[in-house]
Amino acid sequence: MNIKIIYQTLCLCLVGCAISATTACQGDWDEPQGVPFGNNSIDDQNIISISDLKKQYADVIFASTDTYVKIDKDIKIKGRVTGNDLGGNLYKQIAVQDTTGAIIISVNQSGMHGFVPEGQEIIIALKDLYIGGYRKQPQIGYYYFNANHNAVELGRMYKERFQEHLKIVGTPDASKLTVLDNFDPTLDKNENCAKLVKLRNVSFVHVSGLGTFAPDSTADKTVKVVGGCVNRELNEYDADDLVIRTSTYARFAAMKLPYDEVNKKPKMCNLTGIATRFNDTWQLLIRKESDIEIIEN
Fold first, then answer.
1. Of 118, 121, 283, 79, which is closest to residue 193 (Cα–Cα)?
2. What CA–CA distance (Å, rounded) separates 111 from 109?
3. Which of 246, 214, 217, 226 is nearest to 89 (CA)?
4. If we measure between CA atoms, which residue out of 271, 232, 236, 260 comes closest to residue 248?
5. FRET pair for 43, CA 20 to 30 Å: which of 91, 206, 241, 278?
6. What CA–CA distance (Å, rounded) separates 89 from 83?
7. Residue 72's Cα: distance from chain center in Å?
């Protein structure tokens, strides 16, 4: 075959492929439906408020000892993600809130902020998941055997199970998150635990040592690290009422506590975070460094 003819044939093939690709881009194939995470087949039927959910299982959640129960009803909750693992302080869990209340979802998965960012609306199909309380903090997860306690307890669900029970709705919109401003620790804990809150005009108790949010215990022997976290006290509240709890793995853990080195006094600040509880003590979980607003004057 003549080389010129071969060349012309190849050119025609390339043009044909280009036309086919253009046609495909113009709509000759089916567009993917839904989002690539979660279960798009979950509908919006039988949705109840988070407040009603906590009331239905109050005897389990707020029991004097940690316990849990399987949800055997075909019910769902719908809310927006107010906190995730973006800042490293919420470990393998997300906080979900609707207009009535909030709750913690425990999942054995890292990097959840990638598909359930703050402001993302989601639906959780609750049937066959487990609900209970850890020191009276409501959470949804799955049972597991705790070898340290030699007991079966409520913990994190596998990521595959989470994907089966999760539906992502629309696109994230952090502007739609509701913050409980000027948070008052005397508020009812059953009703308000796990909500996104803001403390205003507070200051940290000055500490010796490194004076950071959560130094590693090997770096600062003056700090008590329990469960990989450090509790910092505020001058405005008794430590039995409220503490700021930070993981040593939080991205802002090594950040200095707001302190005026010149005038030798703590700086005032506003703090935003998830108001979890440990029995009758509030434990504010700051989500990320931008939740710490230092008042310079």
1. 283
2. 7
3. 246
4. 232
5. 91
6. 9
7. 25
Closest CA to 245 of 205, 273, 218, 266: 273
90 and 43 in contact (C-beta within 8 Å)?
Answer: no
Q: Cα 270 to chain center, whole Å?
A: 20
Distant-in-sequence, close-in-space partners of 213: CB < 8 Å, separation ≥ 6: 230, 232, 244, 246, 250, 252, 253, 254, 255, 257, 286
163-198 residue pLDDT tens: 999 999 999 999 999 999 999 999 999 999 999 999
Residue where the block lists tokens 């508020």? 187
Q: Which residues are CB-neighbours of 293 under 8 A, at least 6 positions away?
A: 269, 270, 271, 272
Query: pLDDT, tens digit, for every residue of 136-171?
Result: 999 999 999 998 888 899 999 999 999 999 999 999
Quick one: which of 110, 89, 114 has its CA closest to 249?
89
Rounded Cα distance between 154 and 145, Å, is: 9
Is residue 230 over pLDDT 90? yes
Percent of the chain predicted with pLDDT > 90: 79
Half-sphere exposure in the Cβ direction for 177 (13 Å, CA):
27
Q: In which element (H, E) is residue 80 found?
A: strand 76-83
Q: Please report where in the chains the tokens 């607003």 appear, as a residue.
A: 293
d(CA 102, CA 86): 19
Alpha-carbon distance of 83 to 94, in angstroms, equals: 5
